[in-house]
């Protein structure tokens, strides 16, 4: 069945997660007096790759705890979110892909970051984007959004890159999902409905 409605998770599909998180971490460390990020860069890369499938908020906490062990986590996390707002490195060809997708489907943005953070972050990009934004922090569930938008659940697809966040939640709520990932095998659980190597491939499955 072709999908008419898309719930799109921007982290990893719109934003390049590794580059933007690294830059936000680097700036956070600077604020706490750590100016030579090169000493921490290798550790960041190792930890990011190790925790790639963790829930995002958990990964942020693990990174900050490892790289800033002497700083209170709530304080470092708050500053990290502020820095993340200004990190707008986009994935390749995303404007074209979003334009093509929005011409044939209805799309909403769903983020696991606070709504004020993801809204400000999207505003700081050069994307021509006018889409509704929802946040998991506000306890919006996929099924709640589907009901609110009066969508047919069978025609709705969650698209994202994180197994522990959106793919697991889609599984839990019995909503179809597409996992965008290059070079990683599809796990038994959580199991996405579809697995694509790049975002543009989703156009083959929409109405």
From TrEMBL:
Gene3D superfamilies (alphabetical): HAD superfamily/HAD-like, Putative phosphatase, domain 2
Protein name in the entry: HAD family hydrolase
Leader sequence segment: none
InterPro entries for the chain: HAD-like_sf, HAD_sf, PGP-like_dom2
Species of provenance: Lactobacillus rodentium
């Amino acid at each position: 069945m072709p999908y008419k409605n898309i719930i799109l998770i921007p982290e990893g599909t719109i934003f390049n997660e590794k580059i933007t998180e690294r830059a936000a971490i680097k700036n956070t460390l600077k604020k706490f007096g750590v100016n030579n990020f090169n000493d921490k860069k290798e550790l960041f890369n190792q930890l990011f790759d190790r925790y790639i499938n963790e829930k995002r908020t958990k990964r942020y906490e693990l990174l900050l705890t490892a790289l800033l062990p002497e700083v209170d986590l709530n304080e470092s996390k708050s500053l990290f979110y502020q820095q993340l707002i200004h990190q707008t490195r986009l994935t390749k060809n995303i404007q074209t892909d979003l334009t093509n997708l929005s011409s044939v489907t209805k799309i909403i943005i769903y983020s696991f970051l606070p709504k004020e953070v993801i809204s400000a972050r999207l505003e700081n990009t050069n994307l021509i984007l006018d889409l509704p934004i929802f946040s998991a922090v506000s306890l919006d569930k996929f099924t709640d959004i589907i009901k609110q938008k009066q969508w047919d659940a069978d025609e709705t697809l969650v698209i994202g890159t994180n197994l522990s966040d959106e793919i697991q939640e889609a599984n839990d709520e019995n909503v179809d999902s597409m996992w965008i990932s290059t070079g990683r095998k599809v796990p038994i659980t959580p199991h996405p409905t579809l697995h694509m190597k790049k975002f543009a491939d989703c156009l083959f499955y929409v109405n």
